């Protein structure tokens, strides 16, 4: 009986969906605590690929409750679409989805503001366009629409009208955009009616089940380096993607959480703008992108690729308090003659191993690499550590020692069973 959190240790897309799906086998609850439809978590069900954006990845497990926590920003239109998508794969959602009363609601207005802001600024963040930032702005401005507002249609309509007139006075939307928002708001109201059936006191559900000794899995979205406080600001998302978001985003104090599993890809990727010290612009980068199929699960954008950044991962482990690591996409490195690992940064003729020291100056650091010999043999689908090539074991042990955190899971393919448990 335990409470376990799964947190992205890099810039997102580390394979959290796969690991949550795997570990949710014995979970009574899987809960998301932040973010919204900007996330894209890939899971496989009966050989079909499903990408989940807002529904926790425990949805595939029969008796698992899926909680969308108060720290999330939830898009009702996207949620209805996602529920239909999941159902079309034969997955039952009956009595499985619970949306926190005080989660904030993303409206079509927020999505338009998000895209508009990106279109007029020279310093683009490369957002997913899902309205995440503007919805959190409204939350902190104390004018947000919350899930509990879905329970009173007239109140919701009034809030939407206020929000729309404010947006139209603030942003220079063209006529076609205004028309689009108004049309989308009609569908939005319908979806809100539908989604209102899921609005629940999730706080009580979590605490009651925690007191019963049930297994609870907490699913992070995005990654630590995209965290609004600890990430590469301003090139971040608008929530606390690191473990710090759990207590506010679910009302569950950290003293209740037994394990924090950091998900780290065996190399690094980033989608959107912002600094990325180990980014590769050569053949190796292209190879990681091609073999790793590194294209965004939410927007389809190509992901920037580079070598494993040990400095960033060590920082991530400290920020989150990782008790263990799940290393994913090991198999993607099967075809490389040599593999590099960043152990430090050079900056102004000095070296550092402390990410926080250079977090605000990452564009100017030069990675210092240790090079490993590639193993050049397939690891895809290997299920025990002993079966791995010696050269692979050397690379894995180095990562664990460098980050000072045990690696307990190694993923060797996208499938549910392509996994090594240590
Ligand atoms: P998430 O956002 O952290 O859940 O990750 P995404 O789903 O956005 O991206 C991870 C991608 O890698 C998905 O396409 C997964 O199916 C795939 N994946 C996960 N683990 C592995 C692995 O060990 N090997 C391979 N080849 N693919 C993997
Ligand atoms: P998962 O959960 C990777 C990135 C965007 C952009 C920045 C801000 O699948 O790992 P936002 O729309 O959140 O305001 O965009 O954050 N981003 C992600 N990158 N994986 C994600 O989620 C991401 N969610 C947001 O690309 O750079
Ligand atoms: Mg993703």
Give the percentage of residues in beta strands.
Answer: 15-25%
What is the helical fraction, as a range of percent? Answer: 25-40%
* Overall form: globular
Distinct ligands: guanosine-5'-diphosphate, 6-O-phosphoryl inosine monophosphate, magnesium ion
* Helix vs. strand class: alpha/beta
The radius of gyration over CA amounts to: 21 Å
Physical arrangement of strands within the biggest beta sheet = 9-7-5-2-10-1-11-15-19-20
Helix run count: 12
Largest sheet: 10 strands, mixed
Q: Low-confidence spans: pLDDT under 50, at least 5 residues?
A: none
How many β-strand runs? 20
Termini distance? 19 Å
Mean pLDDT: 97
In short:
By secondary structure, the protein is of the alpha/beta class.
């Amino acid at each position: 009986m335990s409470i376990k959190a799964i947190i992205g240790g890099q810039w997102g897309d580390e394979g959290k969906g796969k690991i949550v799906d795997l570990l949710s086998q014995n979970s009574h609850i899987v809960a998301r605590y932040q973010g919204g439809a900007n996330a894209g978590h890939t899971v496989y069900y009966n050989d079909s690929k499903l990408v989940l954006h807002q529904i926790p990845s425990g949805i595939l497990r029969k008796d698992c409750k899926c909680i969308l926590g108060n720290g999330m920003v939830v898009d009702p239109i996207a949620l209805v679409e996602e529920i239909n998508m999941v159902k079309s794969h034969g997955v039952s959602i009956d009595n499985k989805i619970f949306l926190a009363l005080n989660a904030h609601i993303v409206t079509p207005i927020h999505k338009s503001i998000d895209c508009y802001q990106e279109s007029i600024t020279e310093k683009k963040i490369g957002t997913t366009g899902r309205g995440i930032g503007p919805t959190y702005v409204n939350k902190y401005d104390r004018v947000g629409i919350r899930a509990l507002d879905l329970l009173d249609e007239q109140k919701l309509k009034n809030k939407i009208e206020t929000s729309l007139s404010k947006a139209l006075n603030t942003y220079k939307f063209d006529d076609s955009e205004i028309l689009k928002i108004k049309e989308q708001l009609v569908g939005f109201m319908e979806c809100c009616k539908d989604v209102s059936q899921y609005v629940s006191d999730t706080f009580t559900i979590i605490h009651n089940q925690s007191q019963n000794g049930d297994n609870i899995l907490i699913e992070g979205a995005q990654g630590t380096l995209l965290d609004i406080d600890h990430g590469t600001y301003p090139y971040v998302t608008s929530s606390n993607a690191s473990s710090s978001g759990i207590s506010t985003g679910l009302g569950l104090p950290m003293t209740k959480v037994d394990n924090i599993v950091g998900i780290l890809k065996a190399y690094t990727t980033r989608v959107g703008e912002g600094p990325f010290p180990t980014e590769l612009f050569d053949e190796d980068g292209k190879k990681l992108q091609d073999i790793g199929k590194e294209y965004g699960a939410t927007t389809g954008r190509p992901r920037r690729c580079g070598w494993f950044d040990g400095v960033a991962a060590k920082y991530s482990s400290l920020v989150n308090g990782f008790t263990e690591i799940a290393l994913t996409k090991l198999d993607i490195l099967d075809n490389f003659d040599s593999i590099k690992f960043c152990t430090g940064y050079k900056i102004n003729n000095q070296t550092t191993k402390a990410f926080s020291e250079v977090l605000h100056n990452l564009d100017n650091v030069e990675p210092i690499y240790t090079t490993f010999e590639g193993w050049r043999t397939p690891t895809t689908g290997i299920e025990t550590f002993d079966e791995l090539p010696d050269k692979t074991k050397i690379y894995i042990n180095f990562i664990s020692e460098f980050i000072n955190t045990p690696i307990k899971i190694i993923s060797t393919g996208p499938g549910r069973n392509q996994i090594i448990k240590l």
